[in-house]
Write a structure and sequence with these properties.
It catalyses: 2 cob(II)alamin + A + 2 H2O + 2 H(+) = 2 aquacob(III)alamin + AH2. The chain is an alpha/beta fold. It has 21 helices and 24 strands. Strands 1, 2, 3, 4, 5 and 6 form a 6-stranded parallel β-sheet that branches. Helix 1 links the parallel strand 1 and strand 2.
Length: 699
């Protein structure tokens, strides 16, 4: 039951991987310390709130998924508010503040939040607090923390104004006193820029625990001879500061070991995205030479006996487990090595203080302990500060306890970014670094997020290879570092590489490997259609493909599909096709040398390749990167885009390629249009808006 309406606000969250929910729970938790109470719901629970009649302020925390879409939990809500028959004053009564989560590595940064924000404004809703846009690329907390700090004054102001509108002039003392001192402070925060310059006062951390230590204790943690900080060691001023640490999250999970036996749930029960398909792996080919820097594999799946449908350009997801060796290592540290195959029952703890506590949807009520650690929890996840705060209570050594407190504190924010976030540290790394930390199993279930299925681009055409689905990937390697003493492979790519090791054929660099090996190995997949990254509907429209490395993957499907269409419809008119491909070495990682076959049969009109690490033999050095070859073909690129109204596709690494390609295209447009860069950028924006410049990128 919420407090009387003068102190209530509605708190909605829309989450994909749990981050928006965790932030909403932090807001809910802090609200009580400010004399407020949050009525918190997932935005999908539309039977539990009604924005059409909502009188109190509304706070919305929303993430972004895919290529800029709202999270799955917000789809119905977004569809509802995008109804074009709604009048422009539909939400004129509504006051709201919105916090969007995103990643600036992707083009449509915070687009989930921006979409909802823009539509609410169009329907007459008013901001009572400036919108915050938090960037996971640099650390969500850089915007989230100050946004939450400023929220309380803004909420109290909104509630006060609401009372005045209703003719209730006797304000609550706590509200009045807060407003009298800082009525306008909140509007002066610029949360989207210069957030690094915000000075966070101790007063701004109300709702957090303030921890002080004696200087003697601090000196034990930070010996004078060590001048450089690390994961396990701090230096002044952090080591000598009183700390503002998050409030301890309430426990809410109870784990009971059972003597009975049974069967673990089917993997399909862990997926909420739709139908899953268990399919055999029929072929595996290593596309790179053994001495290549990265190992690229092509896998072929048999989908003939399933209802799985796809188009070239689509993606699909693979349900993968954690590494068995890492799970066993975790069980050993937790002292549960002998209990991995025991069945456990996961329930909500009686008397928990957590509002609306429920068993996480990705955790089965009953399964073996090993099943939960293998298939349900992302044990490689970078620990959030709330998790670190909970781990403090499980740590017996005073020095280790202090360092964990520092890492989750305001004062230790840069250390957290440097030694945990940027170092890609996971739970196992922390437990090795802080050996006196012995968390309970229930704590891991409370704080570790869902193990996400991994997404891959389809590298085939069902028209060209009926009943088959191919995909290409690099086996991801994480080298050892000071914060992570052991090297690791990617969760999914490492598992797939191990799974298909018996299948790998000695023949390299070809897709036409004879004598497929039979295999009983199966993997579970589900479709993830791409709404835009498809061939032009009109085959006469020309298009350009840019895909270095494994970024070429979807374009193999494009070309296979185009080749089959040409064979089936010789009377059709087909537009020209361009492919720009690059890799390090021609003889080591030129993934698909049979591209020349597409060139020879006319499916591919132009093939441009470059090799960034090969030593040039010519007097004039050849271009090293795909953006360099694009510039050499500037006139043709501009003609395809401007005169012929063609399409431009980019697939691959965001940070080190896609942005450079985008810059190159802007330069090309500027030069060929004889216009300034701003005008070229406007044309580029129009191409994106018309979905004629399309990206399938990853960070």
């Amino acid at each position: 039951m919420c407090c009387e309406s003068k102190r209530r606000f509605l708190l909605l969250y829309a989450t994909q991987k749990g981050q928006a929910k965790a932030i909403a729970e932090e807001i809910w938790q802090q609200a009580g310390a400010h004399g407020l109470e949050a009525d918190m719901h997932c935005i999908s629970e539309m039977d539990k709130y009604n924005l059409e009649t909502e009188k109190d302020p509304v706070v919305i925390v929303i993430s972004t998924t895919g290529t800029g879409d709202p999270p799955d939990t917000a789809r119905k809500f977004v569809k509802k508010i995008q109804d074009k028959t709604l009048p422009p004053d539909h939400f004129a009564h509504l006051q709201y503040g919105l916090l969007g989560l995103g990643d600036s590595e992707y083009m449509f940064f915070c687009n989930g939040g921006r979409t909802v924000d823009r539509r609410l404004q169009e329907l007459g809703a008013q901001h009572f607090y400036d919108t915050g846009l938090a960037d996971d690329c640099v650390g969500l907390e850089l915007v989230v923390d100050p946004w939450i700090d400023g929220l309380w004054l803004a909420l109290k102001e909104a509630l006060q104004l609401q009372k005045e509108k209703e003719g209730m002039n006797s304000a609550v003392d706590a509200v009045s006193s807060s407003l009298s001192t800082a009525q306008h402070a909140v509007h002066e925060l610029n949360l989207s820029s210069k957030v690094q310059n915000l000075k966070l006062e101790d007063e701004g951390a109300r709702g957090s625990d303030v921890l002080s230590q004696k200087r003697d204790d601090i000196n034990l943690v930070a010996p004078a001879r060590d001048t450089e900080p690390s994961l396990i060691h701090s230096v002044p001023p952090v080591s000598q500061s009183a700390l503002n640490i998050p409030a301890l999250p309430p426990e809410y999970i109870e784990v009971q070991f059972q003597d009975t036996q049974g069967e673990n749930p089917h993997l399909s029960s862990l997926i909420s995205e739709g139908t899953t398909f268990e399919v055999p792996v029929t072929k595996a080919v290593q596309l790179t030479r053994e001495d290549a820097i990265k190992t690229a594999l092509l896998l072929e799946l048999d989908i003939a006996d399933t209802a799985f449908k796809y188009q070239p350009g689509d993606a699909f997801c693979v349900i993968c487990p954690n590494s068995i060796s890492e799970v066993e290592e975790l069980l050993h540290i937790l002292g549960l090595s002998e209990k991995g195959d025991d069945f456990i029952c996961v329930k909500v703890k009686q008397g928990t203080k957590k509002k609306g506590a429920s068993r996480p949807q990705h955790i089965p009520e009953r399964s073996t302990l090993k099943f939960i650690l293998m298939w349900c929890l992302e044990i490689r996840a970078i620990p959030k500060k709330a998790f670190l705060r909970a781990l403090v209570e499980c740590t017996s050594d005073a020095g280790e306890k202090r360092r964990l407190q520092e890492l989750c504190s305001r004062q230790g924010a840069s250390d957290y970014t440097r030694f945990i976030r940027d170092s890609n540290v996971c739970l196992l790394d922390l437990l090795h670094a802080f050996p006196s930390c012995k968390p309970s199993l229930s704590l891991l279930i409370e704080h570790l997020p869902k193990l996400q299925a991994r997404s891959y681009s389809v590298s085939s055409s069902n028209l060209y290879q009926p009943g088959r689905l191919c995909f290409v990937f690099n086996v991801v390697e994480f080298p050892a570092s000071p914060s992570r003493p052991v090297s690791r492979k990617g969760v999914c790519t490492g598992w797939l590489a191990e799974l298909v090791a018996p299948l790998l054929h000695p023949s390299k660099n070809t897709l036409d490997t004879k004598g497929e090996s039979s295999s009983t190995e199966k993997i579970s997949i589900f479709p993830r259609p791409n709404n835009a990254f498809h061939l032009p509907a009109d085959p006469s429209v020309p298009f350009i493909m840019v895909g270095p490395g494994t970024g070429i993957s979807p374009f193999i499907g494009f070309l296979q599909h185009r080749q089959k269409l040409r064979e089936q419809h010789p009377d059709w008119e087909f537009g020209e096709t361009w492919l720009f491909f690059g890799c390090r070495h021609q003889d080591r990682d030129y993934l698909f040398k049979q591209l020349r076959c597409f060139l020879e049969n006319g499916t591919l009109t132009h093939l441009k390749v470059c090799f960034s690490r090969d030593s040039p033999t010519a007097e004039v050095a050849p271009p090293k990167y795909v953006q360099d070859i694009l510039r050499l073909c500037a006139k043709e690129v501009a003609r395809v885009l401007l005169k012929d109204r063609g399409y431009f596709y980019v697939c691959g690494d965001k940070k080190h390629m896609a942005d450079d390609v985008s810059d190159a295209v802007v330069d090309i447009l500027s030069m060929e249009m004889e216009a300034d860069k701003l005008e070229a950028m406007k044309v580029m924006a129009m191409l994106r808006e018309a979905k004629r410049y399309l990206q399938d990128v990853w960070s």
